[in-house]
């Protein structure tokens, strides 16, 4: 287990060393969303589902900030390690594939929690967001981070250029987050957009996190957690299979 | 049958890459424990492929590899191998000291700090111990690469062209380190393009071309077999044969 601990330390050290890029920048960006959108639109949209608008958008924005960070961290860490070939130091070490997969996943989880924790504190201070269902919040965050951290690992292994890693972030994750009910309740959407939202996995994650914070969401918490878990488990298994088989990592 | 006293045993090792290139073809090799063994061959001969296969950095097509009698992909065998690759592949986010301590950690060392300090001193990197790898000079990176390979006290050290592109002084320094290591009982597998280096350091030399072993002997034995006064002549004659 010593090797796993050191790999986890390496991945978290990288986040800590680059904290202005990895934590501060996304926290500022998300808190600006909360303040600007909350304050500017909060005057016009008083309440959504009986919650003040500036409070309503907090769970979605925290989710968005965390999943983007979890994905981007691992995709870039693995891709950089492959690109510079210092991943060989890990691949040749006496580590089991599950330890390597877990070690590389931890960096994204750590970074996302640093961002999420900072945003939570700032949100409590600025807009007084509550945490109504802490266990549901914990489960939702845990599953969401496993999903997106593992996705980052997978993309970091398959990517052949930096553009491939940013493509998934900008063309897939960000749009899905924006249309996943971060800024609105899907109940207000006309058909067929309301129905289409239910095919968006980020919609379930945002709603699970929102349930944890506010105690209410557009869909059942169990359905939300189930959908996120149903995606997290195979994506994590995929990342571990890549280390077990050596595919894309070893010629 | 694998010999118990072998540091490295390759049996019918074959590696065919995805594009069809046959890098190693039914390759057999036995390196005795405690040997200083040289591997010579032109670019593309299969030297780096062989090393990568031993170090679990590529998937072999067929064949078997054992390190001190253990399957090469076992955790035990991995912990016995130290690799300094031809290309500088240092973690850009880590300082010199971190590079060594984290490597030691990956290889299961509980308290790698003292060993890292020992190697930093041995390789003359004391004043750079808090410097990140990208800020080191070429020679310092090369020293760090070798120090990293030795960090976990491996029984088999594999050096893939360790003196490629370094100046004369550093080359002599590296030779001294490597000789001392061998004198302490470590088995060394060295690939190099410098024939004088192979002759100066190695007990035995294998010539490899197109994924096949052409010959293996002492420098004197190769001279007598292929003809030629200098190892350069032997090499040219062997590659033409």
Spatial strand arrangement across the major sheet of chain B: 6-7-8-3-9-10
Radius of gyration of chain A: 18 Å
Question: How are the strands of the biggest sheet of chain A laid out side by side?
Answer: 1-2
Examine the coordinates and then state which fold CATH places here, giving the name of the CATH topology of chain B: Rossmann fold
Assembly classification: heterodimer
Order of helices and strands of chain A: HHEEHHHHHHHH
Portion of residues in beta strands of chain A equals under 5%
Domain count of chain A: the total is 1
Explain the overall architecture.
- The complex is a heterodimer of chains A (251) and B (241).
- Chain A has helices at residues 2-17, 19-42, 53-83, 87-91, 97-127, 134-158, 162-178, 193-197, 201-214, 221-245; strands spanning 47-48, 51-52.
- Chain A is an all-alpha fold.
- In chain A, helix 1 (2-17) runs parallel beside helix 5 (97-127) and helix 3 runs antiparallel to helix 5.
- Chain B is α/β, with parallel strands linked by helices.
- Chain B has a single domain (6-240), classed as Rossmann fold.
- Chain B is built from nine helices and ten strands.
- Chain B has helices at 47-54, 75-80, 96-106, 113-122, 138-150, 168-183, 195-201, 219-226, 231-240, and strands spanning 6-16, 22-32, 36-40, 62-67, 70-71, 81-84, 156-160, 187-191, 204-209, 212-217.
- In chain B, a hairpin with a 2-residue loop joins strand 9 (204-209) and strand 10 (212-217).
- In chain B, helix 3 (96-106) crosses helix 4 and helix 8 packs across helix 9 (231-240).
- The longest helix of chain B is centred in the last third of the chain and has 16 residues, at 168-183.
- The chains are: A mainly alpha (251), B alpha/beta (241).
- Chains A and B meet through helix 1 and helix 4 of A and helix 2 and helix 3 of B.
């Amino acid at each position: 287990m010593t090797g796993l601990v050191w790999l986890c330390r390496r991945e978290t050290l990288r986040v800590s060393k680059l904290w202005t890029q990895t934590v501060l920048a996304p926290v500022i960006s998300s808190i600006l969303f909360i303040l600007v959108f909350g304050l500017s639109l909060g005057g016009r949209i008083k309440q959504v589902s009986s919650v003040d608008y500036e409070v309503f958008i907090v769970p979605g924005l925290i989710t968005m900030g965390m999943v983007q960070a979890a994905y981007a961290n691992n995709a870039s860490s693995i891709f950089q390690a492959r690109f510079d070939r210092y991943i060989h130091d890990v691949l040749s070490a006496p580590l089991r594939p599950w330890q390597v997969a877990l070690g590389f996943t931890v960096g994204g989880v750590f970074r996302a929690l640093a961002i999420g924790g900072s945003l939570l504190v700032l949100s409590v201070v600025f807009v007084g967001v509550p945490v109504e269902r802490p266990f549901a919040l914990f489960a939702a965050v845990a599953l969401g981070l496993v999903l997106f951290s593992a996705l980052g690992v997978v993309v970091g292994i398959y990517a052949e250029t930096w553009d491939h890693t940013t493509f998934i972030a900008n063309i897939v994750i960000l749009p899905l987050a924006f249309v996943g009910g971060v800024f609105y309740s899907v109940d207000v959407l006309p058909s067929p957009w309301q129905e289409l939202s239910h095919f968006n996995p980020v919609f379930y994650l945002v709603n699970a996190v929102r349930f944890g914070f506010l105690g209410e969401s557009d869909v059942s918490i169990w359905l939300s957690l189930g959908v996120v878990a149903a995606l997290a488990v195979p994506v994590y298994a995929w990342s571990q299979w890549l280390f077990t088989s050596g595919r894309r990592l070893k010629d | 049958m694998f010999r118990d006293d072998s540091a490295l045993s390759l049996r019918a090792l074959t590696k065919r890459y995805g594009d069809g290139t046959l890098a190693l073809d039914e390759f057999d090799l036995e390196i005795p424990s405690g040997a200083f063994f040289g591997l010579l061959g032109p670019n593309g001969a299969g030297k780096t492929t062989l090393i990568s296969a031993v170090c679990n950095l590529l998937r072999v097509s067929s064949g078997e590899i054992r390190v001190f009698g253990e399957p090469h992909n076992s955790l035990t065998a991995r912990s016995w191998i130290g690799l300094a690759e031809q290309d500088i592949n240092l973690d850009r986010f880590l300082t010199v000291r971190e590079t060594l301590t984290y490597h030691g950690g990956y290889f299961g060392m509980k308290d790698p700090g003292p060993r890292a300090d020992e190697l930093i001193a041995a390789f003359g990197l004391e004043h750079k111990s808090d410097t990140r790898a990208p800020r080191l000079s070429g020679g310092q990176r090369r020293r760090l690469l070798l120090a990293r390979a030795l960090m976990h006290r491996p029984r088999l050290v594999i050096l893939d062209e360790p003196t490629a592109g370094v100046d004369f002084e550093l080359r002599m320094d590296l030779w001294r380190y490597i000789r001392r290591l061998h004198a302490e009982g470590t088995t060394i597998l060295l690939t190099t393009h410098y024939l004088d280096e192979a002759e100066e350091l190695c007990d035995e030399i294998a010539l490899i071309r197109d994924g096949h072993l052409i010959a293996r002997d002492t420098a004197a034995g190769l001279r007598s077999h292929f003809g030629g006064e200098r190892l350069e002549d032997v090499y040219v004659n062997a590659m033409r044969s």
